[in-house]
Amino acid sequence: MSNKQKLYSLDDHFKELMNDHEFVAEWKKSEPEYLLAKQIIEKRIKKNISQRTLANRLRTSQAAISRIETMSGNPSLSFLKRIAEVFNTKLILKFE
């Protein structure tokens, strides 16, 4: 008998969790924050800048950037506009 373990990706785990109705309900509540954090992290990494560098460009603290990226902060619309300016991109908000 083999002791090999099957590799289990984060995507596999997420798909499994999406079968749990309680998880889905909680996910829907936090999805906008998650998507915002994900986009900011992706843009920051693509620009090859640290949280501290982004914070300096925004004239805020590294902790403020960390709070947004960990979904524990609640950035204002004006702050999101400033982030978009630093990333030289357009901020788009929409309801679906």
TrEMBL record:
Extent of the signal sequence: none
InterPro entries, sorted: Cro/C1-type_HTH, Lambda_DNA-bd_dom_sf
UniProt key word rRNA-binding: no
Keyword DNA-binding part of the UniProt annotation: yes
Chain segments annotated as transmembrane: none
One of the Pfam families matching this protein, by short name: HTH_3
Domain HTH cro/C1-type residues, every copy: 40-94
Keywords annotated in UniProt: DNA-binding
Protein's UniProt name: Helix-turn-helix domain protein
